[in-house]
Design the sequence.
């Protein structure tokens, strides 16, 4: 049975879209059509922004509720999401191939956690009063920034959506969300949860569509802030538009992070964490460490361990509990990954496992490891967004730092060592927004984001909330 929607969630209601255009949803494992939603048009974005604007400007509305009241509403929203947790995980896995065990953590668990985390943050927040140096004092008042245009990709659709909308809603903003066309069924289920939770009209609106629709939302005069996660190319174009408009923007873009294996490592002991940092979600996570930097003295041994890891990965139906790796999201994405594998071989990389397709049907690519990759090779520089690792040799710590930092990206990174203090010292030398020692995890409390071509701004933590707030200084006792 397919899942088909005919209406859009706008202004707190399910309403007929402005056109008859439809987005079909295709399973990446079976290539069968599994559902559809209406494709949003510019007119639908106009209606959504208008609803969000009215909700934001209402003097008795969401933006003016106290933090505790918004936190209570978000707690109800979280409950409704939790009630749909298994269905959400199922829809995400069916649409983008994420292994169901991972979807249960990232896609059903994390969104509710973020609503609770940011709800608690605003429920307790009070204006800060700072004693002045010139006499008097200053109230530092924080107010919601306004209507937020949120644009998300398909790879971890619910978690990434809530990195944006949980702090935005908690801050008192209203939101127009544009999900990626590949993953829309989860977004509509999320809208059902919002309806059931009684979220006020216009506070959250969902309009699915492609890049032109996203670009229209970015430039819309009724939008006060843009929050984007996706490719660096799209991010540059959005940054240009927002620069012209002087519109605040948060950009979470691509990555080519390094897993730096130090010479004292016991990699076999941490192999599960290493999988999580390098091959999770079929290689389709922005912060994955797809460059493995190995010391020359232990190079062959590290290549063997990484090769065994990839070779022993269970590839198959994303809906099976035992699957560790599913298909890539689309035929286009598989073509792209295969073309990088061919380039890697042409440049002199040596495939130690994988390199081909897995199975007869669906967009499966075998987990692939390249040895003898040099830092200047294309596969060591460009984001592949698939299960392809490059093992690069380094001579000493300075050489490892130089190779790690030679990337145009700077999003994630990991250091692998039996000496955690040494790892932490080393981590400070890596030019990146986030780095893990012997593992990697996005904790809600820890600011997440990149430098260089990986974007600007931070999500998660209190920093994630403040990016949806204006700061106003109110001078007291100034004579
Ligand atoms: P993409 O940039 O093609 O699309 C992402 C989203 O933006 C989609 O909703 C798309 O419709 C929309 N979009 C595309 N071009 C646009 C434009 N010019 N204006 C407005 N909206 C536009 O990316 P993708 O291929 O779907 O996703 C994979 C990319 O996302 C990878 O590069 C990955 O690294 C990145 N990503 C980054 C993070 C992060 O937090 N840094 C997280 C996940 C994914």
Sequence:
């Amino acid at each position: 049975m397919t899942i088909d929607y005919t209406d859009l969630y706008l202004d707190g209601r399910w309403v007929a879209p402005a056109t008859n255009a439809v987005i079909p949803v295709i399973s990446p494992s079976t290539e069968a059509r599994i559902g559809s939603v209406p494709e949003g048009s510019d007119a639908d974005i106009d209606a959504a922004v208008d609803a969000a604007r009215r909700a934001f400007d209402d003097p008795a509305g969401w933006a003016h509720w106290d933090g505790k009241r918004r936190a209570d509403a978000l707690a109800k929203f979280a409950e409704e999401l939790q009630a749909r947790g298994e269905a959400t995980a199922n829809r995400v896995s069916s649409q983008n191939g994420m292994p169901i065990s991972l979807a249960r953590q990232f896609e059903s668990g994390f969104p509710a956690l973020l609503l609770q985390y940011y709800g608690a943050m605003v429920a307790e927040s009070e204006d800060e009063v700072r004693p002045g140096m010139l006499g008097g004092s200053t109230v530092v008042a924080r107010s919601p920034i306004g209507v937020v245009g949120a644009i998300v990709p398909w790879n971890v659709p619910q978690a990434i959506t809530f990195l944006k909308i949980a702090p935005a809603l908690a801050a008192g903003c209203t939101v127009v969300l544009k999900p990626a066309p590949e993953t829309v069924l989860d977004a509509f289920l999320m809208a059902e949860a919002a309806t059931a939770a009684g979220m006020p009209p216009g506070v959250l609106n969902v309009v699915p569509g492609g890049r032109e629709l996203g670009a229209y939302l970015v430039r819309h005069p009724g939008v006060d802030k843009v929050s984007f996660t996706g490719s660096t190319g799209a991010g540059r174009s959005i940054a240009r538009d927002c620069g012209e408009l002087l519109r605040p923007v948060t950009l979470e873009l691509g990555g080519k992070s390094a897993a730096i294996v130090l010479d004292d490592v016991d990699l076999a002991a941490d192999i599960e964490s290493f999988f999580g940092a390098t091959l999770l979600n079929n290689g389709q996570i922005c912060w994955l460490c797809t460059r493995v930097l190995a010391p020359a003295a232990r190079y062959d041994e590290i290549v063997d361990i990484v090769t065994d890891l990839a070779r022993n990965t269970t590839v198959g139906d994303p809906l099976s509990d035992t699957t560790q790796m599913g298909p890539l999201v689309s035929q286009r994405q598989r073509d792209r990954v295969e073309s990088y594998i061919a380039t890697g071989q042409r440049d002199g990389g040596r495939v130690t496992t994988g390199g081909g397709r897995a199975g007869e049907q669906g967009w499966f690519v075998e987990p692939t490891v390249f040895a003898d990759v040099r830092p200047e090779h294309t596969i060591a520089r460009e984001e592949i967004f698939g299960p392809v690792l490059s093992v690069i040799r380094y001579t000493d710590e300075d050489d490892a730092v130089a190779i790690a930092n030679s990337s145009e990206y700077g999003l994630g990174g990991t250091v692998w060592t039996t000496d955690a203090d040494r790892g932490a010292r080393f981590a400070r030398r890596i030019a990146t927004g986030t780095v893990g020692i012997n593992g990697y995890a996005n904790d809600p409390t820890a600011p997440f984001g990149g430098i260089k071509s990986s974007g600007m701004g931070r999500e998660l933590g209190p920093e994630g909330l403040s990016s949806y707030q204006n700061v106003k200084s109110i001078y007291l006792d100034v004579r």
Observations:
- Residues 151-155, 160, 178, 180, 210-211, 214-215, 218, 229-231, 234, 237-238, 252-255, 286, 383, 385, 411, 450, 455 surround nicotinamide-adenine-dinucleotide (CB under 6 Å).
- The domain at 258-443 is CATH 3.40.309.10 (Aldehyde Dehydrogenase; Chain A, domain 2).
